[in-house]
Design goal:
By secondary structure, the chain is of the alpha/beta class. It folds into three domains: 151 residues, HUPs (Rossmann fold); 179 residues, Argininosuccinate synthetase, chain A, domain 2 (Alpha-Beta Complex); 28 residues, no CATH class. The chain is 39% helix and 19% strand. The strands form three sheets. It has a five-stranded parallel sheet with strand order 3-2-1-4-5, sandwiched between helices. Strand 11 and strand 12 form a beta hairpin. Helix 9 packs antiparallel against helix 10. The N and C termini lie far apart (67 Å).
C-alpha cells in the first residue's frame, strides 16, 4: 500500500510490540500517531500505557473504559444465542475485536486520521477481525498491519529496534515469554510457544482466572441468576450492571475452577491452533441462559435457534460482526428473547456448573399436562392418531422396499 499517511490511530496496549509499532509508524510512514487503549476488563492498570505514550511523544492519547458497552452490546447479544464455536469455545477474543475496531474508526473520524493500525500477526484470526471491522465501518480507511510488512520477525529484532529508538523495555520483557495472553472481562486466551504441542498438558501456572478444580471447595455453592428479555440482570436478588454482573460471575467461577478449556480449533486463515481458555463467568452465564430458555421458549423457537447458532458463531469467530447476515440473525435471536425472563438456580462445584432449578412468570411448563397422576387436560387416546399420521410415510417407504422388480416406464 502507499505510505502516504498523514495520521494513524493505533490500537495500543503499552507493551513492547505496540510500542515498537508506534515508533516504526513514525519512522516508516513519517506520520502522526494517535494511540487508543481500550479497557475491556483485561485486569491491567492502563495508566502506564498513557505514560509510555507520553514518553514516546504522543499528543493525542485515548484511554477509555468500555467494559459496560462491551458486555451490554457485544457479550450479552452473543449469549442470547447460546453461542459456542466448534461446540466448545465461548468466543471471548473474537467478540472483543469489533468494539475495538469501532472505536478506532470513530476516533479516526474525530481526529481527522486517514489510517488505522493493529498489532495482530499475519498468521492469526485477529488481523481478519480487525480489518473486516474497519472496512465494514469505513470502506475508505487505510489499514496498516506491521506484522505483514516489517522485517522485525523475532524477539531479538524487536528489542534491537526498541533500544535503537530509546523505547523503554521492562526487564521481564527482555526474555522470551513462555506463551502469549489475551484477556478481557469475558475470558483469557493463552497460546503459542510452551502450549504449541497439543499432546502436552498445560501447566497450572498458565491459568490466571480460575483456581484449580482439584483443590476447589469441597462443598457446592448455589446461586440464583435472574433474567429479563434474555439477559442476566441480578445475582441472588441483587441487581447489577452488565459489567458488574459478569465480574461477579467471574468471582464465583474462579473459586470453583469453572470455565477452563483446552481447545484445538480451526482458524479462519486455514490452520489449526491450540488455545487454553478461561471463561468462568461466561460458562456460568451460558448454563443459566439455557436454563431459563428451557422453561420459557417454545420448542420450535428453541430448535430453530439451536440450528442457526453454529452459523452465528462462525460469523463472529471469522470477524463478520458488522455484516448484514449477522445482524439478520441477531434480529431473529432478539425476537425470541421477549419472554425469556425468570430465575435459574445453579450449583457450582469443582469445575462444573449444573442447573438445579428454574422458574418464570412466562413459563410454558405445565405440571397438569406432564403429571403421572390423573388429569383432566390431556386425553392420552389422542396420541394414537398423532402416531399413525407420523408413521404413514414410514409405512409407505416400507411397502416400496418390498417391490422385487423395478418399475417399468416403457
Amino acid at each position: 500500500m502507499s505510505k502516504q499517511v498523514k495520521k494513524v490511530v493505533l490500537a495500543y496496549s503499552g507493551g513492547l510490540d505496540t510500542s515498537v509499532i508506534l515508533k516504526w509508524l513514525e519512522v516508516e510512514y513519517g506520520c502522526e500517531v494517535v494511540t487508543f487503549t481500550a479497557d475491556l476488563g483485561q485486569g491491567e492498570e492502563l495508566e502506564p500505557a498513557r505514560r509510555k505514550a507520553e514518553l514516546l511523544g504522543i499528543k493525542d492519547i485515548f484511554i477509555e473504559d468500555l467494559k459496560e458497552e462491551f458486555v451490554r452490546d457485544y457479550v450479552f447479544p452473543m449469549f442470547r444465542a447460546n453461542t459456542v464455536y466448534e461446540g466448545m469455545y465461548l468466543l471471548g477474543t473474537a467478540i472483543a475485536r469489533p468494539l475495538i475496531a469501532k472505536r478506532q474508526i470513530e476516533i479516526a473520524k474525530e481526529v481527522g486520521a486517514d489510517a488505522v493500525c493493529h498489532g495482530a500477526t499475519g498468521k492469526g484470526n485477529d488481523q481478519v477481525r480487525f480489518e473486516l471491522g474497519y472496512y465494514g465501518l469505513n470502506p475508505n480507511i487505510k489499514v496498516i498491519a506491521p506484522w505483514r510488512e516489517w522485517e522485525l520477525n523475532s524477539r531479538t529484532k524487536l528489542i534491537e529496534f526498541a533500544e535503537k529508538h530509546q523505547i523503554p523495555i521492562p526487564t521481564d520483557k527482555r526474555g522470551e515469554a513462555p506463551f502469549s495472553v489475551d484477556a478481557n472481562l469475558l475470558h483469557t486466551s493463552s497460546e503459542g510457544k510452551a502450549l504449541e504441542d497439543p499432546w502436552t498438558m498445560a501447566e497450572e501456572y498458565v491459568y490466571s482466572r480460575t483456581d484449580n478444580p482439584v483443590t476447589a471447595p469441597a462443598e457446592p455453592e448455589y446461586i440464583d441468576v435472574e433474567f429479563e428479555k434474555g439477559d442476566p440482570v441480578a445475582i441472588n436478588g441483587v441487581a447489577l450492571s452488565p459489567a458488574a454482573l459478569l465480574t461477579k460471575l467471574n468471582e464465583h467461577g474462579k473459586t470453583h475452577g469453572i470455565g477452563r478449556l483446552d481447545l484445538l480449533e480451526n482458524r479462519f486463515v486455514g490452520m489449526k491452533s491450540r488455545g487454553i481458555y478461561e471463561t468462568p463467568g461466561g460458562t456460568i452465564m451460558l448454563a443459566a441462559h439455557r436454563g431459563i430458555e428451557q422453561i420459557t421458549l417454545d420448542s420450535g423457537a428453541m430448535h430453530l435457534k439451536d440450528s442457526i447458532m453454529p452459523k452465528y458463531a462462525e460469523l463472529i469467530y471469522n470477524g463478520f460482526w458488522f455484516s448484514p447476515e449477522r445482524e439478520m440473525l441477531q434480529a431473529l435471536i432478539n425476537t425470541s428473547q421477549e419472554f425469556v425472563a425468570g430465575t435459574v438456580r445453579l450449583m457450582l462445584f469443582k469445575g462444573s456448573v449444573q442447573i438445579v432449578g428454574r422458574k418464570s412468570q412466562y413459563g410454558l411448563y405445565s405440571m397438569e399436562h406432564v403429571t403421572f397422576e390423573e388429569d383432566s387436560v390431556y386425553d392420552q387416546r389422542d396420541a394414537a392418531g398423532f402416531i399413525k399420521l407420523n408413521a404413514l410415510r414410514l409405512q409407505l417407504l416400507n411397502q416400496r422396499g418390498k417391490i422385487t422388480e423395478p418399475p417399468s416406464y416403457d
